[in-house]
Specification:
Elements: H1 2-42, H2 46-51, H3 66-71, E1 97-114, E2 125-144, E3 150-154, E4 157-169, E5 176-195, E6 202-215, E7 233-246, E8 251-261, H4 273-276, E9 278-293
Amino acid sequence: MRFLHVRKIILITILLATCSGAAMAQDAAAITAASCMLVRQAKVSAVDLYFGGDHKGYKPPHHVDPWEKIMNFYKPNGDEAGDREGFNIHELGRKQIYFGIALGVNAANYRVVRKPFTGTGTDTIRTVTSGIGPGFNLGIIANWQFHKYFDLRLIPTLSFADRTVKYTTVLRQSPDTSLTVSSIYLDFPLQLRFKSDPIKNTRIFVIAGIRYDYDLASNSTARTNSILKVDKNDLAAEYGIGLMIYFPYFIMSPEFKVSQGVLNINSPTQNFIYSTVIQKLYSRTYTFTINLEG
């Protein structure tokens, strides 16, 4: 009888232990499942938790692929540098000096100051006017972004320009005479550019500066009696307006500017009325340029 009682007690103890273990295992499984669910929802592994975040699944809030940048071109960037991270390096101030090319077309003429009537041979010429001629420009841009709103720009340029000068005389045999002056310039403009705050992905800007011109085609040293001679060296004041359009990897800036010469470039030929009738001659150029910078 005692053996039967002992056997029953052992069986009951085993059953109780088994039930208790099953309950504990069930509770542990439930706790593990809940933990896994939380980790799965948060997408954070134990290693990532140790390092302080989900490094594998993390993506910067403003990081997009290049195609998405192009497709969302007019999406506002915000005012802070962090809001534009990944869009264009120039806006972050990480690249203060950058370069580019300038492609443009121009229309040029002269501002002519005629000598007053004196009753001498120059009175044979009634009027002297200048017409506009076409040309084009090709330049290299060096830009220093030294301030949020200001750039200093040096743009060495090779430019071609044609100008016409028209004379009206009192002579019956040749009442009108026209001359075309072709110039090939090496230009060295130094400009200060002021930029507005970004409007979406664009900026409006104004420029002002000075420009030194060296005319490779000048005939001022020629020994022939040309109708009109112009000096090799010129200095001009420049001003203009434009628009900066930010793409992911470059900036395109259509720009219109006016260049007004401040030096008298007339090189008169003595005893030649077509030349001596002009008292002062100033260059003037209107230029439309597409700047590509990056």
